[in-house]
Amino acid sequence: MTIGRRPRVLLTDHAWPGVEVEAGLCDAAGFDLVEAPPGATEDVLAGLAADVDGILTCWAQVTAKVIAASPALRVISRMGIGLDNIDLAAAAARPVVVTRVPDYCVEEVSDHVVGLLHAWARCVVSADRDVRARITDPRRYAPRRVSSLVTGVWGLGPTGRRTAEKLVTLARETSGGRVLADDRHPELAPAGVRVVPADVLLAECDVVSLHLPLTPATRGLIDAGRLARMKPGALLVNTSRGALVDIPALCAALDAGTPGGAALDVFPAEPEVPAALLPRPDVILTPHIAFSSAHSVLELRRRSTEDLLRVLAGLPPHDPVTLPPVS
Asked: Which of 22, 78, 176, 325 is 20 to 30 A distant from 165 in Cα terms?
């Protein structure tokens, strides 16, 4: 740290206007907040990180180069749940503490899944487009009874479990609906959820919702083979990580009618939306907002900054990340 200057925290990016929350908390703890410019490159982030004690990051890539740039770096706080934008091996080698906020938007994301399901089942998006085009023929649509659908959740983390609970509530309105989950962690399944192998889930469900982290093992998980196992006319929902889904394979599968539709809040190379998806009437698109509400964003900003400052004060974080072993 330069003599006479307060220690600093770098904010690489943010998905909300203003940085008053982060700057205010840092200032009260004796730190200056340095805000990176929008779309900062790796070199720009490395330059800004050269003399910081902590890094707050939303979606920007915190690479090995950025981590190595600051000899004083002690903590990286992910303003979110997923960790695929942080080089965890480089953090572990320093070592640098990594934190995240694993449960701030459970209600919001699960609500978004249920909302996308209803929008698809009740033809809300296509009907809205038609009405705006002065087309009002109800024979164009084939709405579904939501409570009769077989729905599936792939991934039983906090958000997947909460989504499954809400789907069980919908299914209980009649005796026809069923809720399935993949069987990797059957002990996490809520009451009323049947655990099955992932291939069975794909084959039996009218709606499949993904709730998986992005790892080398899950990148491109939803490929041509798995899409072909889905029911004709079914819906694929992804509010987790865009790169879980092979987009060219999805488009080809939609052309074949298996599945019949997709509802995507996330994309492989955000903020870019794959051009092939844009003209498709069988795909519902939202711009990575499933996590967002006034309550969740404020909680995220406060908790991620406070946990970073706890580490800088010599205290253990509330939500530490287990780092990979150093080879």
From this structure: 78
